Amino acid sequence: MPRIDLASLAGMVQQYISRKYAAALIDRTKVAELKAYIAQYLYDTGFTVDGYTEKTLAERLYSEMAEYSVLTHYLDDPDVEEINVNGWDDIAITHLDGRIEKTKEHFFSPQHAEDVVKKLLQHSGMIIDNASPLAQGHLPNNTRITAVKKPVVDEERAIAVSIRKLYPQRVDRDNLIRTNALTEEMLGFLETCIRYGVSFVVAGRTSSGKTTLLNALLAGIPDNKRIYTIESGARELSLVKRNGAGEVINNVVHTISRPSDNEAYNITQAQLLMAALRFDPDIICVGEMRDREADSAIEAIRALVNNGHEAWLCTGRSRAFVSWYLEQIPFTGMISACGSTIEKDGKRLFNKEMTPEIAKLSVEVLRKYGLIPVMEGADFMYYDKEEYTDEVNWYASLITESLGDKWRPIRGNEDCMRINKISAKMTAGCDAEAALSILSEYYDIIRHEGSSSFVGNTIELVPKGFNKAVGIAAVIRLFDIPWEDTIVFGDSNNDLAMFEYAATKVAMGNASPKIKELADYVTSDMFHYGIRNGLEYLKLI
User: Fold this and answer.
1) Are 421 and 376 in contact (CB under 8 A)?
2) DSSP per-residue codes, 83-108
3) In this structure, are residues 471 and 338 in contact, taking their beta carbons and an 8 Å threshold?
4) What is the pLDDT of residues 245-265, one digit of tens each?
5) What is the per-residue pLDDT across 273-323, written as a single tens digit (0 to 9) for each?
6) Strands 90-95 and 100-102, how do they pair?
7) Are 101 and 125 in contact (CB under 8 A)?
8) Using an 8 Å Cβ cutoff, are 129 and 114 in contact?
9) Model pTM?
């Protein structure tokens, strides 16, 4: 039987399957069928690879084509806690029992390692490339990933990745004492702090037991006390208790922040903290904080203004949807709703509104064809909360809390809505094209399908002829600002117009490919000091 190396065989099988059974590659219901095609190919050609049986070889080849190569097994293994790729030929696995072992298998080449990691990241809406060589976020199933590629790491190593599965933990106080994690006196002191409402911080190095300690402390809180937890990106705390019948017996709300490349769908730990105050909690537990980047942006903008420059917020959000924390930043002025509203020094200079008749027609058309509308105005946001669920990526309860008295239901206000724009969420089976063919008479369309995180499958409808570039052009005319001095930062597709207009364009590291193509410079992403680094690059601060 002819023997062949695995990399060469994988390439041959890929070509064969792509040529004859391409549809099966993208159809998750055809897994067994696809594996049968691969097994048949191996039988027909007689190819074998050292170290593999016929069955294991077919499984590995399937993984190369439809999954994540050598990483697949470890991603699916419940006994694996962490996967560390130190280079294309160096992979270390950390098990739940603390054992660390090097894998015998590795990627075929530096390029193969990079391609597999890119595929893994893309399925979660993240991009890693030469312009943005660092990606950080969360995969499905409560898994955290950080990846860096050349030129940040050595070229011969290609890429480095840390993948950590975050298992919600539950450890009781007796276990902490028995394992000498802390003494009875230490634990008693911390429990007393909680009992009497004393705030404290748990700090320590990575994997030092911070989350384990918090789980143990919070698990001892009486069941009638309300606990509200705030974590970043994935849940590590596990505090919900059930009795033998499966009924919840304590009072816990777990919340998780969610970053997005569209600020309208970004849920920060700060927002969740504000929401917590409306839940009447007895205890608030905030997990690991990663908001230094946001503070750096505020300080960078403050320095920019202090250096004599103007700093305008140009946002796709309507004015009513501009969060309180954005209003604390010392912006010179604000362009909101994709150019439809302009303010300076708290004074509204311009506000383009659709007529109530067109707003009502828009709701009727969107709902008729299966889309869910958010009607965005300068003073109010209109939507019906019951239409939004996790399935359509909308955190209506949290956003409603943030809006306060700026929220209005559509129902009951159909004839009097004052709006600047619409965000319409696509749902399964909707006919977006039919809806847009009608509404394009009144609106320009911005599509976000396929974008990362929560903005995916959202369509923005902006008044005809309005966009961020129109707003910027109006500002420079009003205040006699030379066009040559205009500099824009952006990441989303609703930034395309201003990137086509401005003199200097800076793309965030998390920006869409279209934005990066138009950019004069690509800074780091929004969570890694992108604003500050971009302003420093331009020598403005």
Assistant:
1) yes
2) EEEEETTEEEEEETTS-EEE-S---S
3) yes
4) 888 888 888 887 766 545 555
5) 777 776 778 888 887 765 555 567 788 888 999 999 999 999 988 999 887
6) antiparallel
7) no
8) no
9) 0.51
